[in-house]
Amino acid sequence: MLDLRKLRYFLTVAEELHFGRAALRLHLAQPPLTRQISALEAELGFKLFDRTSRTVTLTAQGRSFLPYARGVLEQVELAQVIATKLAAGTAGQLALGYVSSIALSDLFSQAIQAFAQRFPDVQLTLVECASGSLGAQVADGRLDIGLSRLLPQNDAVQALSLGEERLVAAVSSDSPLASQAEISLARLSAFPLILFPADYGSGLNQSIEQLYRHHGVPLYAGPTGRQITSIIALVAAGQGVALVPACTQSLMNKGVTYRPLVEVDACAKLLVLTRKEESNLSVQAFMAVIDEVAATPAKSECTHK
User: What's the whole-model pTM score?
Assistant: First the structure.
């Protein structure tokens, strides 16, 4: 195996084309440098330099070998830089799972953007999941972090609250509900409510069902959709109404009108899931970023106590 030190010596002499100047740059005496170059030539099986008492020039083999030697040393330097960043948690890989109803939120986009700007050497992989499977995927390491609305059912996973997001009513623009400034749950209960499938393990479903029970309002279940976009599409098609996070209003679907709810406690949780005693420095870095972003109040936040 080639000695990296000898490759550095070769590169320096090739740049200077003078053993004396190269020795000064390397903080060596000239004789030891000459011996190291001779030893490298012996290992390679060809001469690197043609030397006279006045000049030093690269041989044809030396010129051909030079870019490979330079490339090896550049890769070694890059490896050292990456190793330092890995040790500091500023490089590596991070798998982030999220539910579709969070992907539209300012919190999500701002946290992703801020993290990417601060840690460009961390490869961030985004995976859309159902709430019910997020906790298990974080627990077994398939995901490093989960953004969910559902508390995990796994002792190996911890949930940190990022606050709550206000819910709004999504109704067909042709519905009489669209003409109201705000809508009550009692008024909504006369219409089929579009939810995620019951087996989807949706945290948003859970929040909505708890809200209806708390206010003693019957829930008339309608068709289901597996993504927030499909739920809104069903609303536009006149198949029912939906309660969705306020961030969903960014989906300006033709035929859908969004209205605030009378009930001030109509909110959905925002949770970040991680493994307990997580040692991944990139996870800790992301947590610091999302905590910072979550600390900035948003108009869509709930304010009830």
Answer: 0.68
